[in-house]
Amino acid sequence: MAFYCNCKIRLIDDSNLATSREIGLTLLHFTRDYEYRVSSCLAMGLNCSTFKQVESNEYLQRFCGPESVSHNDPLWNNLFSHSLSPLFTKDDYMLLDGHSENLRNQFIINNLSTRNLSALIQVFASRAKELSLSVQTVDSIFIWQTCNALSLIKVFLFFKENGNAEGPIIDGDIDILEVLAEQSVKIITEIPVKSLTYVLHLEAVNLLIILTSGQMYWPVPAAKLSAFRVIMLGSPSNSAALITKALLLNYMDQVAPPNPLFQRGDDDSGSIVIGMASGFWNILRSSVGLGNADDGVMSEYKKHNLASQSLNLLLILTNHCTCLGEDSLNIYQHSLITLGNDAGVQNEDALAAPAVEELSLFKLNYSKLYEVICTKIDQDETTLLLYTLVHRNSGFKSYIMARSDIEQLVLPMLKTLYNAPTSASHHIYMSLIIMLILSEDALFNQQVHDILLKNITWYTERNLTEISLGGLIILVIIRTIQYNILKMRDKYLHTNCLAALANMSSKFRSLHPYVTQRLISLFETLAKRHAKLLKKLDESPGEGSRTEEEQASEMVQDINVLEEVIRMVLEILNSTLSNQLAHNNHLIYTLLYKKHVFDAYRHYDTSQDLVYNLDLVINYFTKRLGDEAKDLSVNEVMDRIQDGVLHWSPEILRKFGDLKFRYVEEDQPENFFIPYVWSLVYKRSGLYWSPINLSIFGSENEYMV
């Protein structure tokens, strides 16, 4: 038996306080069988009551009915003035869906002939044109009603989506779709973000996300979908730079939602009716010993705030339609990758970024953007934004490289890689690619060894009281390689790991003893695994069943991959010894201590040239230790190594080319980024889409892990 709390909302004065307490006491007298349902209903606050009443609302019934509503019908004012609970979380949408099945079905059937949704959009558009003046005059009622109109459009788009209606999202009328998109863009770009307009902005951003969400259901290029054609090529594209700037500013400002939710702010703005409802429910909850209703709602609301939703929309706009042809480009992406630096006051911690070669369509403060990214880089969405900036925006990348506090950016990414067993695989991959891109810069590779870190508490294998940032990068990447080979077996992942280490290897300096141990230990682990697989392959029958042949083929592939990795590790060691031997006494010590691990590779064609150089170093310093090497203390060995370094001649080593690897994006990046972006929006935006007929994530749902 379902229980719904269906109390009327009253003004909160002294007399009504008693009424509220009476209602609360009455609820307490329900039997234990209903106790959980009462608490759950109250925990939903006003939403439960409001959604329950949706189907009985006379204005909504008429809108969804068989009668067309004209543009000047009084229904619109009544509809916009009615207090519907806003939809900000998936629970809100699911509650609405559960209480509005009949209304939804009526709308889907009747709207084909009445076109009332198109009429609603046109009425909203006419009101939206007056918003700027309403904000200036602080006309909170008009703004609230316009926000309600926008919310209603979102609700009926939600109805159409979850009703699995066939056909375009808005009656096949691309002109109406363009009007809706254009007015939503104008709200985002022209109306200032204040407590009075915060929800209006959030609704406009969410609406554009919903309009573009057809990509999740239609397995066709985005450029063939009406919403993307309008946004990319229609009138909204004329404001592409402005909306890109506005969305980035929303993300950078991280403005908190008005609190308490939907109540009057300091400027007497906000929804009066919903504010009273919220106050009523808070009193009612207190009377039965529950917490403030706004606490739970605000907790969810803050997760899906304007900053996070703006970033979601920005990722959608910049990652779709990137291959429109030679004569067309994604103007939103172009705006982002040519973003210039509005430096303002020179930041003491960074040099001014050099001028961007391409003309910037707009400028923002790099310093503020960098600081926000550093605080949010543990999130996939921010990592994707940073990837675009460091990969495509040369000005922002140069700015990052000039920062003296680069550890603020790198440490959270290292923590993501360190937590690979519990991190999302795509987040690991993107974090690693960013590290690879950073390692392409010689200044970065040198700078990271000058930054000393203390007490890295999340690195639990060993207590690191002090280590350079460069040393920590090496440790984490080595750990990622080992985890990948044992668990994930992703060839591209360890290739990128090794490429980053290779780029940095010529600048390895003053490596911590533990770092050198882990570096040689990596080679030792790979060598043991290689020997084990070779032995297993030799013992396998030459001819056998199909299963045995497949297993043998897999072993051969694993052996080939391991040999590539082993050679790369040897190249990294050679690069370090050729360029930085004089600054790596601990590495020399570890090589002397572990010299036996290279024995088996002196005769392999793929590695003997590299091992030859290692032997030259090992033999030279072994002679410096003399016959009494076994009797020397660690300090005495280190002293003799230091003395040997002073007399070392680097010319005796064979010369190999510099290790330089550059990240190159795949030919069709949309195949990776579009499903990835939508998986994040689907899971984390707070918006709800029916899982039925989702096609973008593939049958294995790899993006939903």
UniProtKB/TrEMBL annotation:
Q: Where are the membrane-spanning stretches?
A: none
Record flagged with keyword Hydrolase: no
Organism domain of life: Eukaryota
**Cellular component, GO, one term:** Golgi apparatus
State the Pfam families in the record.
Dymeclin (PF09742)
Tell me its family. Belongs to the dymeclin family.
Full protein name: Dymeclin
